[in-house]
Fold this protein.
Amino acid sequence: MSTQALTIDGLEVVYDALASAIDQAGPGKVELFLVKLALLQAQALGDEQAFKQQVNAALQDL
């Protein structure tokens, strides 16, 4: 697992790419897109415990 964090500018690029992709997926496919993206990111991360921690962090303050 990489310990290199994104810069603020990098996070903005990622946010914009995600927002654009959600718009492209359309209202009926957003959930499917997000699940596919999460599974691809879990595979890229290669660490199920770290992925579970990220899921829990994302659930905070919804």
